[in-house]
Amino acid sequence: MGSDAPYAQSLPLVVSEIDVGEPGPGEVLVEVAAAGLCHSDLSVIDGSRPRVMPMVMGHEASGVVRDVGAGVAGLAVGDHVVFSFVPACGHCLPCASGRPALCEPGARANVAGSLLGGARRFRDAAGLELHHHLGVSAFSELTVVSQESVVKIDASLPLHIAALFGCAVMTGVGAVVNTARVEPGSSVVVFGMGGVGLSAVMGARAAGAHPVIAVDPLAAKRALALECGASHALDGAEPDIVAAIREITAGGADYAFEGVGSEAVLASAYHATRRGGTTVTMGLPHPSRQFAVSAVSLVVEERTVKGSYMGSAVPVRDIPRYIAMHQAGLLPVERLLTRTLSLDEINGAFDALARGEAVRQVVRFR
Questions:
Q1: Cα separation of 350 and 38, whole Å?
Q2: Alpha helices in 302-359 (DSSP H)
Q3: Residue 6 maps to a domain
Q4: What is the count of structural domains for the chain?
Q5: Is the pLDDT of residue 302 over 80?
């Protein structure tokens, strides 16, 4: 939440006592164990993606169910869960078509800052109603969410690692396996080595792609990309970066992924693909930004540009699947974790994220 009356749209966040209501029908009370700091949070905090205020922030997290409301099925007190930041209704056309990341009631609830059923379960000390961030609001020791916002997981997975599956892993790996459907032996380039981009690198390696090229201007992140499975790591600040990618891939990558949220980087990703190549964008640019490419190249070169939101995931299917891949040694998710911190360190941690000094920092509540 912001610091000025009633609440500001920007930093710093305020850590304060709030009241958390009981779960209503179809809702669960979760004790948050760990919550990751993501650029999607930062874009709300710095005002580049306006949301209704006041708001309890945080969306990438894990926790333990402490209470369930009437009508909740498949969840019980004590269950370990990972949050999903689109509460899928299961009945709208996208949900019925197997695309719950595009759930229409879920999207409306997220924009409104409410739970899927329309309720808000937070109030501040003065009784003012507080909004939910993406139906999760994980920067709170306790949170009430719709049952559609949590996925039960294997309780043997450490919860501070489990949190990363709720956004970074689901989005990055999902973009590779769900949105692009990368085939073994195909070539992949990923622009931007944040949590999502590094997860895409892991996903490409697990899918059997080669080469897997990581692009980032920061040497430390390029080194981390190599640890996560990249075969090559290139400096994104180099003026001839597209030519370098084309040389490594003998004419261009089969698949390019953009995880920066920049229309200029997206254009570079597009130009780094071969004829018939696919470009997938996972980043969130400012809503005013426009992306332009040669229209004729889409036709005569049969190129494809695709958006990937939440990794085109089916969370109840994909989160347990990606956890199993991690447990099998295919996704070294623990390498994403830069550090853990307490809630009162959160503003400094967001500053570090904005400066590019961290991949995933996780607030640990337990």
A1: 9
A2: 315-327, 346-354
A3: no
A4: 2
A5: yes
Residues in CB range of 199: below 8 A, 6 or more apart = 168, 169, 171, 172, 173, 331, 333, 336
Average pLDDT, the chain: 94
pLDDT, tens digit, 9 for 90 and up, residues 216-265: 999 999 999 999 999 999 999 999 999 999 999 999 999 999 999 999 99
Residues in the chain: 366
Domain extent for 305: 170-309
Q: Per the domain annotation, does 13 fall within a domain?
A: no
Q: Are 300 and 339 in a shared domain? A: no
DSSP state of 178: I
The pair of structure tokens assigned to 62 is 């894990």
Instruction: Examine residue 105 and say whether the peptide bond preceding it is cis (omega within 30 degrees of 0).
Output: no
CATH assignment of the domain containing 302: 3.40.50.720
Q: What is the pLDDT of residue 12?
A: 80
* 8 Å CB contact between 36 and 167: yes
The DSSP element (H or E) to which 122 belongs, if any, is strand 122-123
Q: Would residue 241 count as lying in a domain? A: yes
Domain co-membership, 267 together with 223? yes
Q: Cis (ω within 30 of 0) for the bond into 287?
A: no
For the whole model, what pTM was predicted? 0.94
Alpha helices in the chain (DSSP H): 39-45, 93-96, 104-112, 159-162, 168-174, 195-206, 219-227, 241-248, 263-271, 295-300, 315-327, 346-354
Q: CA 57 to CA 134: how far, in whole Å?
A: 8
Domain co-membership, 234 together with 198: yes
pLDDT for res 11 = 59
pLDDT of amino acid 148:
98
CATH number of the domain residue 84 falls in: 3.90.180.10
- Are both 139 and 33 inside the same structural domain? yes
User: Angle at which helices 219-227 and 195-206 pack, to 10 degrees?
Assistant: 30
CA torsion angle 65 67 69 72 (round to 10): 40
Q: Residue 8 pLDDT > 60, yes or no?
A: no
